[in-house]
Specification:
74% helix, globular, 50 residues, mainly alpha
Length: 50
């Protein structure tokens, strides 16, 4: 069984931490699907800013 790539988790956590200011514990408490959903939501909002 192959797990989710650790470098991708770091990228997602860093991105969300920068933009939503949640703690590392909160971000790591999200499951993969939740984290991807939040990355998508924040990305969409940032894309609409310009």
């Amino acid at each position: 069984m192959t797990g989710y790539p650790v470098d991708r988790v770091h990228h997602e956590v860093a991105f969300l931490g920068r933009h939503v200011h949640w703690t590392l514990e909160e971000l790591l408490g999200l499951d993969h699907a939740q984290r991807l959903r939040w990355v998508g939501e924040v990305s969409a909002q940032l894309a609409g800013e310009g």
